[in-house]
Amino acid sequence: MPYHRVYRTILLWLIWASFTITVTMALYVDTNVWEFVKQDATKLTWVILSLFLLSASISLWLTLTLTRESLELIEVDYAARQQGLMGIVTTPENGAVRSFFASLKAVVMVNGEHNLEALLATELAFYQRVSHGLAVIGNLLIMLGLIGTVIGLSITLSGLSSSLDALGHDETLLLEGLRKAMSGMGTAFYATLLGAVFGGLLLRVFALITETGVEDIGDRIMKISLVHCAADCKRTEEKDVRILNGEIIALTENARLMTEAFGESRAAMTAFHEEAKRLHQFNRAPDNAGETGDDISALREAIRMQKHYRILLRQEIKLVDQVNRAWWLPLRRVFLAIRKPKVVVPTTHSDRKDADNKEAP
To answer: What is the pLDDT of residues 162-220, one digit of tens each?
Structure first.
C-alpha cells in the first residue's frame, strides 16, 4: 500500500492549517481586525474565535487518530494477505479498524449472517459524528456572524438616533452618538467577516478533510474484507461441519468434567458418611468401655476445659479493656475540677451568719 495514501489526511490538514495561519496574518496586517476584537463590547467576535480554535483542535485530534488507523490498516492488510481473516490480530483496546475485524471474526465463528456495510458504518460512526460536528460548528459560526451584523446595525441605528436628537444643541452628545454608530458598524462588519472566514471557509475545509479521511479508511477496510477475507466469510458445508465438530468436542469436554466432579462429590459424601458414623459410635460408647471409653472421656474433658478457657479469656480481655480506658474518667474529672470555681458551703449557723456579714456592704 502506498504511504502517500496513508499520510494523505495529515498532509492535507497541515497544508490547510498553513493556509489558515496565512489568512489570519493577513487579517491582522491588512484589516486591523485584532484591534477591534480587543475593544469589542459585545464579545461576539471572542465567541467566534474561541469556537474556531476549539474546532481546529478537535479536527487535529481526529486527523491524528485517522492517521493511526491508516497505519493499523497496513498491518491488517499484510496479515490478511498471508493468513486471511483468522490471521488478523484483534484486541479490544484497539481502534475502529481492529474492532471491525474482531466483530467480523465473531460473526464468522458462529456462522451467522454478516452485513459488511452495516458493521463498517457502526464502527466508523464515532468518527463520522465528530467530522459532522465540525461542519455544524462551521455553520454556527456563520450564524453568529449574521447575528453580529444585526446587533451591529441595531447599535448603529441607536447611535444615529441619539446623534440626530443632539444635532444643533449638544455637540458632545452628537459626537458620542456618532462614535456609538461607528462602533456598531464595526461590530456588524467584523463579526460577519470572522464568521464567514473562520466558519464558512476554513472550518468547513477542515471538516471536509476529516470526512474524506474517514471515507478512505472505510473504503480500504471494505476492500480488505471483500478481497482477502471473502473465503473466511463465505458460508460452506465444510465450515458448518467444522463448527459442529468444535461444538461436539466442547460438549464432550464439559461432560467429562461433569463426570469427574460427580465422582469427587461421591467420594467426599462417602468420607463424610464414614466420619459421621464413627462420631455416632463414639457418642454411644460408655465411659468405662476400655480404651475407647477412655479416649472419649479424655476428649470430652478437653472440650470442657477448652470452653472454660474460652470464658476466662473473654473475661480477661474485658478487664484489660476496662483498665486501658480507666485513665479517661479521672482525667476528665481533673479538668472539670479546674474549670469549676470552689464554693464553700457553711455547715453551721455561725458560719452562715459570718458569710452573710461578709456579703453585706
So the answer is: 777 766 676 677 777 777 777 778 778 888 888 888 888 899 999 999 999 999 999 99
DSSP string across 194-254: HIIIIIIIIIHHHHHHHHHHHHHHHHHHHHHHHHTSHHHHS--HHHHHHHHHHHHHHHHHH
Please tell me the distance from the alpha carbon of residue 200 to that of residue 138, in angstroms, as a whole number: 6
Q: What DSSP letter does each residue of 257-283 carry, written as one string?
A: HHHHHHHHHHHHHHHHHHHHHHHHHHH
CA atoms within 13 A on the CB side of 93: 0
Count CA atoms closer than 13 A to 201's CA, side-chain side. Answer: 14
How many whole angstroms separate alpha carbon 344 and alpha carbon 358? 13
User: Residue 333: in which H helix or E strand, if any?
Assistant: helix 328-339
**Statement: residue 64 has pLDDT above 60:** yes
CB 162 within 8 A of CB 183: no
Question: Is 185 in contact with 150 (CB distance < 8 Å)?
Answer: no
- The C-alpha atoms of residue 90 and residue 100 are separated, in whole angstroms, by 9
Q: Is 68 exposed, middle or buried (0-12, 13-18, 19+ CB in 10 A)?
A: middle
Q: DSSP per residue over 136-156, as a string?
A: HHHHHHHHHHHHHHHHHHHHH
Q: Output phi, psi for 169, to 5 deg.
A: -135, -15
d(CA 136, CA 128): 12
The span from the CA of 47 to the CA of 151, in Å, is: 14
- Express each pLDDT in 290-326 by its tens digit: 555 566 677 777 788 888 888 888 888 887 777 666 5
Question: What distance in Å separates the CA atoms of residue 100 and residue 210, rounded to the nearest whole number?
Answer: 20
End-to-end alpha-carbon separation of the chain, Å? 114
Length of the chain: 361
d(CA 118, CA 203): 29
pLDDT digits (tens, 9 = 90+) for 5-33: 788 899 999 999 999 888 888 877 766 67
Residue 318, classified by CB atoms within 10 Å of its CB into exposed (0-12), middle (13-18) or buried (19+), is exposed
